[in-house]
Amino acid sequence: MRRKRIYEGKAKVLFEGPEPGTLVQYFKDDATAFNNQKQGVITGKGVLNNRISEYFMVRLSEVGIPTHFMRRLNMREQLVREVEIIPLEVVVRNIAAGSFAQRFKMEEGAPLPRSIVEYYLKSDDLGDPLVTEEHITAFGWASTQDLDDMLQLSLRVNDFLSGLLMGVGLRLVDFKLEFGRLWENEEMRIILADEISPDSCRLWDTKTNEKLDKDRFRRDLGQVAEAYQEVARRLGVLPEAGPIDIKGPRVMQ
Ligand code: TMP
């Protein structure tokens, strides 16, 4: 079946879904970092992120967090609700790492006094700058009510996922969420969208501090696909034949 391509991002493609109000989210093996300056392919990543993100979204919906996820369709695709994406990346940090450690000249791994939530504007042209609530409301990217909803949901996601991951020997260092607006009748509500995967989280082994996330790609640490597989294995969602052997359906033109 040929489906209309709605949007193509760096790691995913969105196609028109089978029913109005739905989309098909296709996970690619492509990886980029530093706003597209570094590009590569992580073989099998799309298959693994499809499973890992499904797992997190289903667990989150079980504890009452609304998400766009409906069901997984195949190795690389999932059916999701169509939402109006809020053009912000909400980052929650538990431990200093990445751009935060650089900005404040902190050592990576330093614990933070409390979980810190940051907002970045989704803009490739501007390189996803850090923005404040003042910027967000003044430019109308989100309202104060939207921001409050996103903050509360992000902190609930952090608490729940931190515990879940601790149970499989992983420390949730930081992660990025995206939210969308969903209209039902006259009512608008904000739900979790996009994906939650080792592309969008920092995950460190609790015993060894080994990095099991996209930093292996960003920093050329090697064993990138293996790290994603290890996360899937620990969560109990590693496809049986092994993702390397299984070719996903080709992205339709
Ligand atoms: P940062 O330390 O580079 O700002 O990243 C914080 C978290 O957000 C980290 O878990 C990786 C994730 N992230 C994305 O998902 N997309 C991005 O474009 C960036 C820069 C970070």
Structural overview:
The chain is of the alpha+beta class. It has two domains: 5-83 and 223-235, Phosphorylase Kinase, domain 1; 85-205, D-amino Acid Aminotransferase, Chain A, domain 1, CATH 3.30.470. The protein is built from six helices and 14 strands. Strands 8, 9, 10, 11, 12, 13 and 14 form a seven-stranded antiparallel sheet that branches. Strand 4 and strand 5 (38-41) form a beta hairpin. The structure holds thymidine-5'-phosphate (TMP). Thymidine-5'-phosphate (TMP) binds at residues 91, 97-100, 128, 174-176, 200-202.
Highlighted features:
253 residues, binds thymidine-5'-phosphate, alpha+beta, Phosphorylase Kinase, domain 1, 14 strands, 2 domains, D-amino Acid Aminotransferase, Chain A, domain 1, seven-stranded antiparallel β-sheet
